[in-house]
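User: Could you check the structure of this?
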Amino acid sequence: MVSQVASGVVIGDVGSEWIIPPGKESFGTAHELHEWAASTARERTAERPQAAEWLAMSLAAIAASTPDSELRALYLPSLTADLAIVRVLAVERDSAPVDLAEVVGATDPAAVEPPVLEGFETAAFGPGVRSVRFLVAADDRTLTGVVTYAFDVAGIVVRVSYADTDLTRLTELADPVDRFVSALRLQYGGPAAVVPK
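Assistant: Sure, the predicted structure tokens are below.
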């Protein structure tokens, strides 16, 4: 029997409120990146064209700044909502199992208080961990909530996170992001469709 090696993470059906920008390596030129951003923005703002420029600039900046090793998914349930950025990182681990509590920041010295840890399971990844921790910015003392998920499956550690300074919004994002994380799965063989390891 030949065992397959996981080559990355792919996203299942997450709904139209999510925008998945291609990584910057997908574009041959900056012009192509901006054309994608403008086209996507026009498509998403047909009912409110005045929002197209704002969305196109946001999409272009996010796609251009996304490292090759990371996926950024954008949650935009309406044109009056702020964009929520969800980051997905998949890293091949060595042979030793990892402590998922560490991956989600359980011992983060910058956390205001010990993070809240709980189990989180998906059909594709199995059991994992979700944490909620709060950080205070050194310069302006802004409180930021960070939610992180981690899974260790098939030799790959998958970490998903989002953060917000609006703690009400952080809470409101819990269900959509839970569904997003549940739509992720590993890809085996061939090039990774979304997040290379």
